[in-house]
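Box 3.1 A note on notation
Throughout this textbook, protein chains are presented in two layers. The first layer is the amino acid sequence; the second is a token string describing backbone geometry. Keep the layers aligned when reading.
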Amino acid sequence: MRTRQGRLGWLFASPYLVYAIVFFAIPLVWSIYLSFTDWNLISPTFNFKGFKNYLDAFHSPGVQAAFFVTFKFMAVFVPMVIAFSIVVAMIVHGLPRFKGLFLIGFFLPYLASGVVSSLIVKGVLSYNSPLNEFLRKSLGLDINWLGTPFAALFVVALIIAWKFTGYYALILTSGFESISKEVYEAALIDGVNPWQRFWKITFPLLYPALYTVLILSIGVTFGIFTEVYQLTGGGPNFATNTWQMEIFTRAFSNLQAGYASAVAIIASVVTFVSIFIIRKLLELWGKRNGWT
């Protein structure tokens, strides 16, 4: 019976295992192998180059920019999307009725195409757009939204925050719902004001949901591509050149698939190490607030 149950378990797990092998394991091994070659994506033959691709990548301005740009996006995007998500979650949590309907409305941007939303924003921020015409004529402001390093980075971060706010608010709303009302009633008796109640009670008790949202949002910053590709192409002057943009440019524009594979492996290691360190720091914060 135990053997039969084991076989049945493997049978039910086999679709995912096959999927993981075909679309994750095999491409990973192949990418590692290609990172030591000079394959140009077209030629049927290629030469072994050893660690030259990795050495070139470490000295590449594009790779160095991708490393720092990722953390710049993290510094702008993560606080922004967390703040937006908490506000939306608090609003929905306070509604007496139709919470699910409002959550669906906020969740819809997550389902929107990144290409379409980026093209719309590009039109809104173009030089002759009504917005820029108004800013120039009424306020005397001539802002090059996508041609200024910080403005371009902020615009991309804002688009992604708009897209993910509803998704993260859904998670945080479940966190708000899990907090016992008795805790707030006891705080009210003790004379705790709303500001103290949020920072001393709600915020620490929201840790499981916040932990999930923080890890997810940090992971997003290492995979930004669509918005950057459509709006800035990694510019100006590498100001929005993410890992994915660097890999795409090297592989499909410069036809350096071997080099791009090396960059992809470096990006994977940086992503894993960064998230691991941040996760440990978040767990320490959780332990200080009584979570194990």
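The chain has one domain: 60-288. Residues 2-34 form the longest helix (33 residues).
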